[in-house]
Amino acid sequence: MRYRPADGHGLPHDPFKAIVAPRPIGWISTVDEEGRANLAPYSFFNAVADRPPVVMYSTTGRKLGLDERKDSLANIRRTGEFVVNLTSWDLREQMNATSAHLPHGEDEFLAAGLEKAPSVEVAPPRVAAAPAALECRLLQEVALPCWDETGENVVVFGEVVHIHIRDDMIVDGRFDLTRSRPLARCGYQDYAVVERLFQMRRPGQGGGR
């Protein structure tokens, strides 16, 4: 089959998110102007640079079916700070619980039974049990076209200013993905978990960085 996204696909569910997959999940913690914590997962997330390290995530900006701005974006706009926590197999249920649309000001950490850990250079707390966490400061916000007249599509870029890694995740001097077992979104209601790796070296190169 083939189709123009603007015309629709005729399938029961949109295949686009399943085609561009797996996608790492940005489990983003923020605080509002009163210091209240918020935590939410975003599957349009990735690293986009390494010197300095920069990550991005995108959001529709509004809660699904509600005329209410998403807390993560609103908090980042107010404070210029956020933390990306690594999702893992062991934290899958808690991650899923934080995708619920709670009223503004309610703490997803508490709702999901997650312990907070303090950050070093930014105000938002991080998930204490996460295998790794990236403290970020807002670099740039980019507005994208949006088919929904009442919504907005926004890409948020953040510079990583501090990195936390659990000591048990370092094996032979490397961050061990098979030990952290990160989750990825695969479209529909499907997820993947990294449990096995293989190596390929580029022609003329030694070990990976």
From TrEMBL:
<dbReference type="InterPro" id="IPR012349">
    <property type="entry name" value="Split_barrel_FMN-bd"/>
</dbReference>
<dbReference type="GO" id="GO:0010181">
    <property type="term" value="F:FMN binding"/>
</dbReference>
<protein>
    <submittedName>
        <fullName>NADH-FMN oxidoreductase RutF, flavin reductase (DIM6/NTAB) family</fullName>
    </submittedName>
</protein>
<dbReference type="Pfam" id="PF01613">
    <property type="entry name" value="Flavin_Reduct"/>
</dbReference>
<feature type="domain" description="Flavin reductase like">
    <location>
        <begin position="18"/>
        <end position="177"/>
    </location>
</feature>
<dbReference type="InterPro" id="IPR002563">
    <property type="entry name" value="Flavin_Rdtase-like_dom"/>
</dbReference>
<dbReference type="GO" id="GO:0016646">
    <property type="term" value="F:oxidoreductase activity, acting on the CH-NH group of donors, NAD or NADP as acceptor"/>
</dbReference>
